Amino acid sequence: MTEILTTHAGSLPRSPELIEANAARPVGADGLTPEPTAEFREVLRQAVVDVVARQREIGIAIPNDGEYGHLMGSAVNFGSWWSYIFDRVNGLEITGEDIFSSEPVRSAPGDVRLTTFPDRRDWTLFAEAYQDPTSGITVGSQPTFPAATGAVGYSDTGRALIAQDIANARAAFDAAGYEHGFLNSLSPGSGSRIVDAHYGDVDAFLDAWVAVMRPEYEAIAAAGLTVQVDDPSIAENWDQINPEPSVEDYLAFTRKRVDAVNRALVNVPTAQTRFHLCWGSWHGPHTTDIELRHLAPLLLEIDAKYVSFEAANVRHEHEWTVWQELTLPEDKVLVPGIVSHATNVVEHPELVAQRLERFARLVGPERVIGSTDCGLGGRIHPQIAWAKLESLVEGSKIASRRV
């Protein structure tokens, strides 16, 4: 029997103690969080030990640190996967203008530009639902994000924080008996979505973020861990372009962001790299999502062995058939989302097994790792999140016996 392995996209529910410790951290004059105290570091270290042990107890095969080093000061938080980097980068400050407060930007054929978040097409199409607090739609709280007011660069604080993440993860993996694990890191394209008040050129700003992220990727890989590059922007940007562009224009725009990932990973072995794509983790209609068939060929050009993508939520589950049409290179492994962050319903193990079997019969069970659509931490209740992971593991055992 070939075992179908399990993992998850990254973020896991934080413990109450860690949330409280994060919320209590002071904010500097620049609006960013200063280096942690010794007391906070101990709370964080123990929390990582506990979350890795919980993954081992459930039976997750490929763990991470729950993204616990990415500051999250409230139980509901959709943005820590992204906002964590701001404390690790020079050249940023709170200016009062960010991606939520800036003026909308319009694109034209051959000139694709990202607009503001409130001007996204899904948000405007369903404006009544988004503005109704009883609708069930949520994008989480939206703090003021920094803008780049100077040259951006990975800071000494960033180097200390990623070293802390690595040390905590390695110690927790060893304690739980794991030989391998991964850490999440932001993509250059996602980093470059903040307001640029310095470079004045989209491509130059993207290039700057390539240099920003490279040290973090290299530090994770040098420690023998797998780097997961989180890049919702590859798919999510489509919804942030107004009016809707042609697919050709969008793919030209996106290819630059794929190239940016590869340039940032230049010194990282492909076998130690995962790439995560999603259409944005907010709980909304998502009717303006771009189809996977347009993006899948680009995904295969990324220098990552493991390709992680949403395949469980009701907007994208049907797209498993894309992999019937594409030949998966021999050095690639699919990491489809099998349980969703976007519903409180816990997937039945039998459904998990059926979803895994689809992929296993297409590419072989040894080249499928069952995962979550996106991070569970901050998006659904912890009790439900852990139940979903338990169902994922149970369903993978059923599928492994069948295929």
TrEMBL record:
Origin: domain of life: Bacteria
An annotated Gene Ontology molecular function: zinc ion binding
A Gene Ontology BP annotation from the UniProt entry: methionine biosynthetic process
Matches recorded under SUPFAM superfamilies: UROD/MetE-like
Gene3D superfamilies, per the entry: 3.20.20.210
Every Cobalamin-independent methionine synthase MetE C-terminal/archaeal domain range: 209-394
Protein name: Methionine synthase
